[in-house]
Amino acid sequence: MKLSWFFSVTALSITTVLAGCASSGSNQENQLLNNDLSASATQTLATQSLCCNDLAQVTYPALTTGKKLINGTSPAMQFESGKSYFYAAKIDDQYLGKPLSIHASIGKTVFPLQVLLLKADHQISRSLPLSAFSATDYSLMSSPALQADIQLFPEEKFMIVYADNRMMGKSIKIPHPEKLKEKATGIVAQPYPDIEIPFSPWGVVEIQIAGNNSALSKLFSSEPVLAPHNSTTELAPVPAVAAVAPQSSTVAVTASSQTQQYYQQAIQQAIKNNQIEQAMQLVAEAEKLGFNDARTVFVDAVKQK
Amino acid sequence: MKTKMPLIIKKKPLAVAVALLATLGATASHAVDFHGYVRSGIMESNNGGQNAYLASKLGRFGNETGGWWSMAFSQDLLKTDDGKSFGVWAQLEGDTPLTGDDDWSYGDIYGPNGHLGMSAYYITAKGYIAAAPEATVWIGKRAFETHEIQQLDWKAVKSSGNGAGIEGIEAGPGKLAFSVKRADTNSSTWYTTSTTTDSGGDTTTSSTANTSKYNVNYFDIRYAKLPFISDATVELIGQYAMVDKNDEQEELEAAGTIAKAENSFIPTMIITKPVGKGYNETYFQYTTKRFANNLVALGYNDTFTTGFDNDYSDAKAFRFINTGETYLTDDVVMQHSVVYATGSDITPTLDKSNSFNIVARPAYIWNANHKTALEMGWFKQTNTVSGVDKVEQGKKVTLAQVITAGPGIFARPELRFYTTYMKADKNEISGSAPFNNGKDSQLSFGAQVEAWW
Cβ–Cβ of B370/A22 closer than 8 Å? Predict the structure, then answer.
């Protein structure tokens, strides 16, 4: 009996110490993920001075994989979707032709990321809007995220990751983690409501080399599957924004038509070079971005062979 | 790793192009989706061993002596542009006692060293019924939409087995699902004696236990997602266990050798309401015959027959359940379960049964990674057996520190360090003290991990 009391006291002591440790400080990443800083971030952004007036003036350090904290210490610029903090990088040769996985971690808030890919002369090669990113499910040790995999083109030399400022004040709904438990056990999840996550000008963005062809990545793919209970993630619709004449300090991102034209040319060139699989991948990417003429371009290019 | 040869279009380029684009539309297999679940840990007590005590009544938190694991694999086999798809789902599950180093040697599925079994494998096809293109047809082994009272570790609604069904049929304001499954089960036991005489003239009489396997088909119909009051929804469920007897079983029953197996029907109504970041769920169930015993048994109250081991022909039972999770403040969350069950004429000797149990678990959330939980459970069950009242009653208190590893508030796994005190105030139904050394109380401590992905 004495031994059992010793163990009980020890267990309770450990419990108390752990509870005391619970209130200790956390690192910057945890600060961004575990706190709703969207209001203060929006206020800070409103008074933030702009670093640059055009894309050529931006400083582009070499791209490195890993997590990037976008917060009040990040540079800010005026984009067509509004003022935004951003992360910029120069794409060195080691990344050329590589598939990149870009995602914004979902915590108490999420960064509504968009991506610009630039050529050597800082002209826009491609623009990936927020709608190009899908919400991924939870995994064992990581939060869900807004994610997209992209294949870098050889001529793409610079990257900018920035927020769609039109999404501030809006939110995304993600399935409660209990719904993931249902996929693992087959038992109907407790009916927790979906979790509403507000967008924020600050966030945690991660860039990795995507392992598209490895057996391991295929096994642990986050692609949606046919499961007994499909849970959907709702992205708040992008509001219709009236056309605004670009100001001198605004980076004009007329990327939509440019990007579409780029995909048309890239599909045609790939067919011409007999790179059929690359052409099909380009069709899939273009359709995901809403360019519905991609298949017609593909077929026309084949006819001309 | 194989190097892919470049695909070159040479002959009939247009036809090939169309074919290639068709494959882009009718997407071939995606990667396998893998999900898993694991629960394990260690427990020690002051009585020289580990005993759980009626987790089904007092709550499973700090009251589990077994682990569980599950691996589920699913994959889209085919998806077309017009919304048709084929998929496959396979699930392995097992449990592991927490008592020894050799507990990873899995014997037969119900062997002493742990379970290991294929709990589900089925194929789904969606979009192939013209009248209901949104519906999904499935065939295989499946536990269809099991509703578990998570805090008490039993299934309020369960139907599991090999079968077929259709789900997701849009019907008015809700969705319909039908299924039929086989879950054959044993009759009551009867004994036959035989006498043998050896060469020395000595006779030996031996008794042999016999059972007969009944063919049992479960019919299951559900009408879900019905709007109720405000933002609450209702699900209506009907489950019917139909026994298909052979001639031998009919004769054995007619002779009174085995208890009569009768069909049993259980309707269930579930009212679900979101409550802030949590929820509240209420069940009403009423049944007669075999299912009635499941509702009032002193043990796990799964709604699933486990054998026609007695005469349930006059049995009736009703059950009410309320369970949920509520954020009292941003930092305080309360999980609770309340169950009331009552039955009459369950068996020829069990005249009446009334049970009530309540479990509450408030927790204080320190931050995204730490919370402290206190779970309190109490129950009382009164069975009237051949006119005599027998009472089983007990209580539990568990204090735990919970750590959620990894970044963010949604990450898993969850680690729990706990201490639990349990006392059996009365044990007239079970007839014996529930803990080692004949004790009616136990102080235990342990650690548990639960993770899913």
Answer: yes
- Spatial CA neighbour of A283 closest among B8, B20, B30, B15: B20
Q: Indicate the DSSP class of residue B245.
A: -
Shared-domain flag, residues A187 and A271 = no
Residue A193 lies in a domain: yes
- Are A237 and A265 in a shared domain? no
Asked if the structure places residue A101 within a domain, the reply is yes
> Tens digit of pLDDT for each residue in B44-89?
988 887 789 999 999 999 999 888 888 899 998 888 878 899 999 9
Note the pLDDT of residue B165: 96
User: Are residues A183 and A124 part of one domain?
Assistant: yes
Q: How far is A71 from chain B (nearest CA, A)?
A: 17
Residue A3 in any domain: the answer is: no
User: What's the structural domain count of chain A?
Assistant: 2
Q: How high is the pLDDT of residue A250?
A: 42
Q: Are residue A178 and residue A297 in the same domain, yes or no?
A: no
ipTM: 0.79
Residue numbers in chain B where pLDDT is lower than 50: 1-11, 25-29, 105-112, 406-411
Which pLDDT score, from 0 to 100, does residue B307 have?
A: 82
Tokens encoding B444? 């235990």
Tell me if A13 is assigned to some domain: no
* DSSP H/E element including B68: strand B66-79
Structure tokens at B357: 């149990």
Give the minimum alpha-carbon distance from B70 to chain A in angstroms, rounded to a whole number.
Answer: 6
Structural domain of residue A280, as residue ranges? 254-305
Closest by Cα among B361, B453, B447 to B413 = B453
Note which residues in 302-361 of chain B have CB less than 8 A from chain A. 325
By the CB < 8 Å criterion, does B5 face chain A? no
Does residue A28 register a pLDDT over 80? yes
